[in-house]
Amino acid sequence: MLAKVLNCSFLDADDFHPLLNKEKMRQGIPLSEEDRIPWLEMLRDVLKENLVLGKTVVLGCSSLQKYYREILRCADAAYEHGSYASKVQFVLLDAQAEVLAGRLKKRAAEGNHFMPVTLLQSQLDLLHIDDAEGIFKVDATLSPQVIVSTIQALLVSKQAID
Fold it and tell me: For the chain, which residues make up each domain, given as ranges?
């Protein structure tokens, strides 16, 4: 919905996982750094291609740790490591574990996701948000329309400041 409102492309990071990663997750095996880093680097390269072409893109991605987000921020050729001033912006759709588990179960039951709910806690254990990064936090229990409007307003206010 956000990509549609912003008139840009939407990319789901899960579509970029190699089959081996998807199979590990399907079996309930958490990904290792060796699994994640090449995937994040591929996503960075896709973002970089879009930025070079002057395109906006919305990427749905579980960039759970600051280091992972730093890899993605480097898609911006002008990015200075650790400055957090990048054309790549992050939004955390914030919800309690129970809400996420319910949504994940529903998606898995519909055949729309390969990760079992048993891996959710390992994902949440990895999640680390540093307030210095300037990540937008939006309540994921709001309606999709309100979430999109909120993100849009946050992006507009950020552009006004920059």
Answer: 1-93+128-160
**Per-block mean pLDDT, blocks of 10 residues, the chain (162 long):** 96 94 87 94 98 96 93 97 94 90 77 69 83 94 95 84 62
Token pair, residue 142, equals: 């709001």
User: Is the pTM for the entire model greater than 0.90?
Assistant: no
Q: Spell 138-147 as b/e; 16+ CB within 10 A means b.
A: bebeeeeeeb
Nearest-CA neighbor of 117 among 135, 103, 96?
A: 103
User: Which stretches within 28-119 are classed as H helix?
Assistant: 33-52, 66-73, 97-109
Between 1.10.10.10, 3.90.550.10, 3.40.50.300, 3.40.30.10, what CATH number should domain 1-93+128-160 receive? 3.40.50.300
**CA distance linking residue 70 with residue 50, whole number of Å:** 17
Q: How far apart are alpha carbons 162 and 8 in whole angstroms? A: 21
